[in-house]
Amino acid sequence: MDTLKKIFKNKDLLKKIGFTLLAFLVFKLLTYVTMPLINAASLSSLFDNSGFLGIVNSISGNALKNYSVIALGISPYITASIIVQMLQMDIIPALKEWSLEGETGRAKISRVTRYLAIGLAFVQALAMTFAFHNSQTQLFDTFVSDWATAGGRNLWFLVYFYIGVVITAGTAFMIWLADQITLKGIGNGSSMLIVGGIIMSFPGTITSLIQYYITDTNGVLTTVYSGQGALSGYILFAVCILLFIVVLVGITYMQVAIRKIPIQYANRPASQKFKGKSDSNIPLKINTAGVIPVIFASIILSLPNTIFSYINIGGTASNWLTQIFSYTQPIGFLVYIVLIFIFTFFYTFIIIKPEQMAENLQKQNAYIPGVRPGYETESYITKTLFRITVIGAFYLMLIASLPIITSIALGQSYIQIGGTSLLIIVGVALETAKQIGTDTQEKAYTGFMR
Fold this sequence. Notes:
It is a single chain. By secondary structure, the chain is mostly helical. 65% of the residues lie in helices and 4% in strands. The chain contains 16 helices and three strands. Helix 2 packs antiparallel against helix 8 (156-184), helix 4 crosses helix 6 and helix 11 (292-308) packs antiparallel against helix 12 (315-325). The longest helix is centred in the last third of the chain and has 36 residues, at 375-410. Mean pLDDT is 80; it is low at 271-277.
């Protein structure tokens, strides 16, 4: 209650919250602006199952399902950021140098990231449009096909180019909107838009659950629960909601879980008269990699099926591909969780560099009690990080497996918001709460003499 009172008393903070909500409203309205020439209704069947498309659609706030002008949302920018971050690992020396140049270097990296995001958006828009058009759906309106093939001509390249340009422009606008939220609103703009998209898709998930278990008067769903409307239907609906709450609480607990490595300073006074905090530590998060390993694993599994869907291969080979690269199958599920485990370690050690941490501690005349500075400190941090990453990897494997396990156990796949989406929501919510707490603190200062 005290925090709420402080929020309403802080006019600057209220303006930031109001601006963020206005940006969300603009985002939501744009999800309904369907691309010209597109028959969005033909895509609905592709999003019935909570696969990779379901995750991407949730992040975009159903913009992808509607084939909106912002169908890709902020995703190309996130992908570009990850690529640039990896390229800074001595792969491209210039990026490595820029990362050490402070604010000027970060500005250069940010510019490169934006250019790369625009390029990726155009390529993804073309690939996505081509894939949907060549699938078992009629993506374009009838008159588009007639115009592109009239008189024996082939002008599909103009149609694809037009769609690619418009969707790329939508992505550029979303990047600009994210920057405005960062500057004038609350939290990180990119993260807030992702969370906003997921939250916007949540009412649709609840509606689908009600239609599946309780009542579907308009016959929206093709399949419903056999005991729909009966006591068992209400019980299973309550189980789904309860499971959602339990997962939310568990993720929140794990997101704040850290392992503290104590450190001491060689030049710190040991006198009892020394005032101030006498202990310091290096906090290492249990889940340092966040949701990135799950997204990587989903992309890698989805690519082979997408590519081979346009190649005429035998039935036996097609069956094996489905078994290996579909995580709803036993072999594919095993490959999925193994990829998550590997990527968790890979990305964690990209973000946290034990060698650099040991070097910084030595420069600050700091050390870990009982551990010598230099190589032994680096080895100690590496071993500690490895141990907690094992826990984090199994945690991510469980979170990513929950939607698959629940869909099999409950016999339905309408829970589009699974553990992955909740992981994103909780992480951003905790960071935003910290920023709001900082902004609401009273800016009162006292002199050193009283």
